[in-house]
Write a structure and sequence with these properties.
It contains four helices and six strands; from the N terminus they run E-H-H-E-E-E-E-H-E-H. By secondary structure, the protein is of the alpha+beta class. InterPro entries: Dimeric_a/b-barrel (IPR011008), YCII (IPR005545).
Length: 143
Amino acid sequence: MKYMLIMRSNDAAVEDYENLDFTEVIAAMGAYNESLIKAGVLLGGEGLTDAKDGFVVDFDSTPPVVTDGPYGETKELFNGFWIIQASSPEEAAEWAKRCPLGPGSKLEVRRVTELEDFPQDNEWIQKEAGWRAEAEGRLGTAN
């Protein structure tokens, strides 16, 4: 099963991060990522730029409204993610607990749905399976 570990931080955690030695932060995250890689569970992961560089598309109206960051009234910011392969929710939780984050930060852990989770006789699920196979074929020939 695939799990997404979603890194969230409140304003205090972001401020604390900005006061840390960047080299130490990168070393701690690098060691964590290396442990995920060596265990064979890391499928992907990225950090995100500052919220002020992003935007939100709000679908409460038609047409949707685009608002530049930073976002007012934000209690937690989504700062990055990992996607891991784990045999159970408990294993995913164990990996999440090892992440080098401090107070004010959280990892939300959610299972990533797979095509097999949906009705296989659905036209769009069948199309999606074909698209994914086609994309994998293109990626396989690009390497």
